[in-house]
From TrEMBL:
A Gene Ontology term for the protein's cellular component: endoplasmic reticulum membrane
Keywords of the record: Endoplasmic reticulum, Hydrolase, Lipid metabolism, Membrane, Nucleus, Transmembrane, Transmembrane helix
Catalytic activity, as annotated: 1,2-dihexadecanoyl-sn-glycero-3-phosphate + H2O = 1,2-dihexadecanoyl-sn-glycerol + phosphate; (2E,6E,10E)-geranylgeranyl phosphate + H2O = (2E,6E,10E)-geranylgeraniol + phosphate; (2E)-geranyl diphosphate + H2O = (2E)-geranyl phosphate + phosphate + H(+); (2E)-geranyl phosphate + H2O = (2E)-geraniol + phosphate
Membrane topology field: Multi-pass membrane protein
Protein name, UniProt field: Polyisoprenoid diphosphate/phosphate phosphohydrolase PLPP6
Family listed: Belongs to the PA-phosphatase related phosphoesterase family.
Keyword Metal-binding: no
Cellular localization per UniProt: Endoplasmic reticulum membrane; Nucleus inner membrane
Annotated gene: Plpp6
GO biological process, one term: lipid metabolic process
GO molecular function: sphingosine-1-phosphate phosphatase activity
Residue ranges constituting the Phosphatidic acid phosphatase type 2/haloperoxidase domain according to the UniProt record: 88-199
Length: 215
């Protein structure tokens, strides 16, 4: 009837017919992210454009994995005979554990699937690693990079190498097809910000004497 045809649409239908600018922008960003990630995943498989570089990318992947960093830090703690060194290493261990927990929580909440071109042959994974956002390797690389630059006295070439390593770890995640571009970018930002939390909660012999007594 004419009266029913002239009736205004429900608010929900109006929103569907007239999506917000923010919704359009987010959808466009997601489409660009997926397209760029697919194009940059040149080492996602042996038959990919740069498939011959995949073994090197996987070595870089291991260099940013949590287990080598955790084991290396714990070993350093046991071998260290300096209170200052133990303080730095204990806080690095705290930072690494905090990073693992935070990334696992965010991945579990967001639950973004890994790119479809990813090959699940990663070094030591857990259940939450089936999710993609954010990149744990990227958060760890940014966190460790900032930590090392602030607490170790290094020559300029070594400082540059540390920064390059963090960036290469992030880039390798996209090249291997493990993550989308936004997973890595947000991971780097999250790791960079996480260091500020570690600095704020810095563990010292004066603040936590019982903890240092364990070592």
């Amino acid at each position: 009837s004419g009266s029913s045809a002239a009736a205004p649409l429900p608010e929900e239908d109006c929103m569907k017919l007239n999506p917000s600018f923010l919704g359009i922008a987010l959808s466009s960003l997601l489409a660009i992210d997926l397209w760029a990630s697919k194009r940059l995943g040149v080492c996602a498989g042996e038959g990919s454009a740069w498939g011959s570089a995949r073994p090197l990318m996987k070595v870089i992947e291991v260099s940013g994995h949590g287990i080598p960093w955790l084991l290396g830090t714990i070993y350093g703690l046991y071998q260290s005979d300096s209170l200052a060194a133990r303080e730095v290493l204990l806080n690095l261990l705290f930072a690494l554990l905090l990073d693992l927990v935070l990334v696992a929580v965010v991945k579990g909440l967001v639950r973004r699937r890994r790119p479809t071109h990813n090959k699940m042959d990663m070094f030591v994974t857990i259940s939450v690693d089936k999710y993609s956002f954010p990149s744990g390797h990227a958060t760890r690389a940014a966190l460790v990079c900032r930590f090392v630059l602030h607490h170790l006295v290094l020559a300029v070439p070594l400082r540059v190498l540390i920064v390059l390593w963090a960036l290469i770890v992030g880039v390798s995640r996209v090249m291997l097809g493990r993550h989308n571009v936004t997973d890595v970018l947000c991971g780097l930002l999250l790791g960079y910000a996480l260091y500020s939390v570690v600095e704020y909660c810095w563990l010292s012999p004066l603040r936590t004497p019982a903890l240092f007594a364990l070592w």
